[in-house]
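Reader question, answered in our methods column.
A reader sent in the components of a multi-part assembly and asked whether the whole thing could be modeled at once rather than chain by chain. We filled in our standard form and ran it. Here is what they sent:
COMPLEX SIZE: two components
ENTRIES:
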Amino acid sequence: MHFVVCIKQVPEKNDVKINPETNTLMREGVESIVNPFDAYAIEESVRLKERMGGKVTAITMGPPQAEAVLREAISVGVDEGILISDRAFAGSDTYATSYTLAQAIKKLDDVDVILCGKQASDGDTAQVGPGIATHLDLPQITYVRKIEEIEEGRIVGERLLETGYEVIESSLPCLLTVVKEINEPRLPSLKGKMAAKRAEIPVWTAESMECDPTYLGLDGSPTKVDTIFTPPPRGGGEILTGDADEIVPQLIEKLKELVVGAAS
Amino acid sequence: MSNDPIKVIDEACVGCQLCVKACPFGAIEMDEKLAVIDLTTCTLCGACVPACKFDAIEMRQSEKAQADFSAYQDVWVFAEQDDGVIQSVTYELLGEGRQLADDLGMHLCAVLLGSNVSEQANELISRGAEKVYMVDQPELTHFQDEPYAAIISDMVKRHKPNIFLCGATTIGRSVISRIAVETGAGLTADCTGLAIDPGTKNLMQTRPAFGGNIMATILTPNTRPQMATVRHKVFKEAEVDPSRTGDVVPVDIDKALLASRTKRLTFVPEEDNIINIAEADFIISGGRGMGKPENFDILHELAEVLGGGVGASRAAVDADWIPYSHQVGQTGKTVCPKIYIACGISGQIQHLAGMSASDVIIAINKDPDAPIFSVATLGIVGDVFEIVPRLTAELRKVLGE
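And here is the structure of the entire assembly that came back:
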């Protein structure tokens, strides 16, 4: 079977600081990592390959340095990585991003399962996975917490909902987005690290993927960032100290006020 | 290359680096005394354009000319239902949608898919929907990605709403992402603020980014509909007014749209999570300071007395003290209760991203320097194991009265 995992390079930390003089945000010395949710998608794709045979292809869309996340994927068992990189992709929103990734997947042979993390930690939209499925006209199971069964042409997965989970059967090919609960990602082996170092990473461009330029980058993105700003800081409030005998009665009084306040 | 959406005019750039400082995303670097914008990092936010005193940065606007939007009328809301129960986020969407529709002079409509849902359609009218597009089919009893997306996309294409809102829930995010691609609409995730620009009539969609560290306002200036998902508990529910009237419009659909390549086999409710914390008004959360799984019992007891739910930090979940469904924070749930009580939680930024919108935050922690205190309405420097059981006992007495 052919498994494709879509991954994204994201900043390691989201703690952007504010420059008080210019009121703009500063991001200093930010390391880049594999989107944490994608690590579960990578691990699951490798487990599926180990169970079913076949291969795993990882794809990422980003700048040339995003190649690093593909090597990381290869170090834990992914067979090959493809970097999707072109200046024409600049300014892509989730529509243009899912179109571009779908174009790449169309060029791959006999894909059975496409896996994505449930969302990326920098954008938090959860829109790209279902977007890819729609561009490719494929069924989807989102928020998968467990794959119960997989066989030729059929998969059964558990989708995590707010109040429990539902068991969903789908035909293949199919797109899955996975949640943290699905597995515990392995660490790279020495052999994996060597493979990652040696791997040739091809770069696919808008032209090589036969993209329609009207769906790419800024022009292909219906949404635009208009302004960015810092949320008003939430200041700390009153602090109570002392032993439980002193604190609990005060706390009860406060709670009464707060509950009454909240109810009104 | 000349088609780049943003560029530095080399002849005008004096190498002052003001733009480098102004870039929130670290996308501008100096190369031989000239500013160079890394397009792969640049989000086209435009912060550098006014920062340049020499007019050396040019940002191109999208080439698509603004089309005529007069055919796009009405504000639509996706009425999420589960087993015939309208989810409360729907009422919040109707509350906010009412405001937007009034500002635009448009009608507020709800889209309801399900089986035997005419009573629910009337409920939506009592909450302010002027029109309810209802698709009543036995196949639609439970949410299914493909038929739901196909049917709604078809309705969107035929009726052309101006705005379409959906809850940022598991189901909402899954279905509207498909609808947006199917209809070529712009979609903004997880909005916490919505407003109409009085001049352009565009929907200004404000959402947190980078784990809530910055806010961004997003527009869909050149296409319609404008689609957005909205976080639960951010907006007030529309009040029930039984005197309201409206039209329930049963929609006949092409049966081919009911086709689904996925099938829901069973649903398994979570047993130990009777209260969905995303819905709870009170949440008692435990972190690393709880020490071991049994210690969560005191939090469950307090939650029971208050009629709330139990949450947890990532540290507690990773230690297997409590299931993942209880996790609050960036990789867990975003919650917005009336009162959030954080017990033995230090307050990592990822945790704060999931709960800092709570109305009231009470933090109990031994460490007076814990970052959680910086967001707490009320901070208690003390021992959770002494304070919580006594608080529960006292509250039982007070509430019993």
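What stands out: The first strand of chain B starts at residue 6 and ends at 8. Chain B has a mean pLDDT of 90.
Send us your own complexes using the same form.
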